[in-house]
Amino acid sequence: QLTLVQSGGGSAQAGGSLRLSCVASGRIDSRNCWAWYRQVPGKTREAVATIDGDGDRRYYKSAKGRFTISWDNAKNVLYLDMNSLTPEDTDMYYCASASSFSDGYCDTYEWWGQGSQVTVAS
Fold first, then answer.
1. 63: helix, coil or strand?
2. CA-CA distance, 78 to 53, in Å (whole number)?
3. pLDDT tens digits for the chain (122 residues)?
4. Most-buried pick from 1, 31, 68, 104 (CB within 10 A)?
C-alpha cells in the first residue's frame, strides 16, 4: 500500500518553469514504477512521463524535450520539472505508481496523488 501526496504547481507565465513533487510513503521497492499524468476536466487522463525502477524514462507528446521526470530514492519523492511552459500545459497533473513494470512500461497504476493544478498564462 502506498500514499502519494503532491505539492508544487501553481501559476506561471509562458516560457516559465514549474516543479511538481510527489512524496510517496508505504511499501516502496525497485519494482515500483512512477508516472505523471494530466487531465482536462471531462476527459481521460493522459500520460506525461514515466520512470521505472531501473531508471528508464519515457516522455509523451509535448513533454518531450521540455519536461524531466526524476525519482529521489533517498527521499522517496517523484518530481516533474516543467520548462518552456505554454498555455497548452494548463491542466491538473497527477502522480501515480504501479507495483511493477515490464519492458520499460508501468503496469496497472494502483495509487494516485490528489492532483496539482498547473496554469500557464500567455
1. helix
2. 12
3. 899 999 999 999 999 999 999 999 999 999 999 999 999 888 889 999 999 999 999 999 889 999 999 999 999 999 999 999 999 999 999 999 999 999 889 999 999 999 999 999 99
4. 68
Could you give the 3-state DSSP secondary structure of residue 64? Answer: coil
Contact 13, 120 (CB under 8 A): yes
Handedness of CA 7, 121, 90, 32 (dihedral sign): negative
The count of residues in the chain is 122
C-alpha cell at 7: 505539492
Would strands 10-13 and 116-121 be described as parallel, antiparallel, or unpaired? parallel
Extract the C-alpha cell encoding 55: 531508471
